[in-house]
């Protein structure tokens, strides 16, 4: 890891705190770059844009203005959303958990079988924990996580014991911290969040639980659990943006250059800074529970566009797709389907 320049001294404390939990060969960038590329880029000088007090100050002020304007706009548009969108989205609520549990099942199954490897690793050779760069072969005694992930994946596909499996996914996301260390902090929030959602919603339509009459809600606080999922997802985006895009922009710029990402005439560092700002803004709004539906749609469009342009499989982000579907359908507060409104302890007036 290269030293922090003297021009960035005002950010020294924040940098030290963040980089203390960051490995230069981790996060999403590690899925698309080889270890040798990451090692070289980690020692490359940062673009001047990312060390300029003026540029970063203008970017921060712009982000604050956008967040403030978005929150004011939500106050004006919320009644329209409640009247036009909420009832129609609510009609599809039972199908959101289907997307979420199938996405998690595919990720868990492929990770256990080595079917979602990082760039440069042959398929079906390196089992991982949840994500491409957390290779189980690198950790002694972690082999049991292969059958464990396969078992969870099978039951998620069948929709059996879905609520309990949601809790297990939360535990698995935390277990990654003990297995791989602080580097797994990049992934814990974005897997704990869908786990909390499944704890709350169950398997939804076409689940074995519902077919067998086993879909009984857990005695957990509905509003707090739903907000926890939003906060975790938002904080996860903020952490990734700061740790890997703001402090290690050379990795993102290299990915954009490799994929010939359209810049619309802008320099790659400017594009990287804009992407960083968008991710931070979306993360803050999600964490605050504001403009949840528009943010969910924005994130879905962004990760889909990046996957298409960079030639990345959307399965890398199946967990996020599932979360975004649920956020787009539900919005700020979770109101269960009319089939069992009392079971969740949340009145429609609380939404």
What does this structure look like?
- Keywords: Membrane, Signal, Transmembrane, Transmembrane helix.
- This is DoxX family protein.
- Residues 1-27 form the signal peptide.
- This protein is mainly alpha-helical.
- It is globular, with a radius of gyration of 21 Å.
- It is built from 15 helices and no strands.
- 61% of the residues lie in helices and 0% in strands.
- The protein has helices at 12-19, 29-32, 35-42, 53-84, 86-90, 96-113, 145-158, 162-180, 188-201, 208-211, 222-246, 249-258, 268-288, 292-310, 318-330.
- It has one domain.
- α4 (53-84) packs across α13 (268-288), α9 (188-201) crosses α15 and α11 (222-246) packs antiparallel against α13.
Brief synopsis:
This protein is mainly alpha-helical and 351 residues long. It has one domain (25-330). Helix content is 61%, strand content 0%.
Tell me, what's the shape? globular
Proportion of helical residues:
55-70%
Structural class, by secondary structure, is mainly alpha
Number of strands: 0
Distance between the termini: 46 Å
- Low-pLDDT stretches: 1-26, 338-351
Radius of gyration: 21 Å
What is the H/E string? Answer: HHHHHHHHHHHHHHH
Query: Major β-sheet, in short?
Result: none
The structural domain count equals 1
Supply the number of helical segments.
15
| Global mean pLDDT | 87
Indicate the proportion of strand residues. under 5%
Core attributes:
351 residues; mainly alpha; 15 helices; 0% strand; globular; disordered N terminus; disordered C terminus
Lay out the secondary structure.
Blueprint: H1 12-19, H2 29-32, H3 35-42, H4 53-84, H5 86-90, H6 96-113, H7 145-158, H8 162-180, H9 188-201, H10 208-211, H11 222-246, H12 249-258, H13 268-288, H14 292-310, H15 318-330
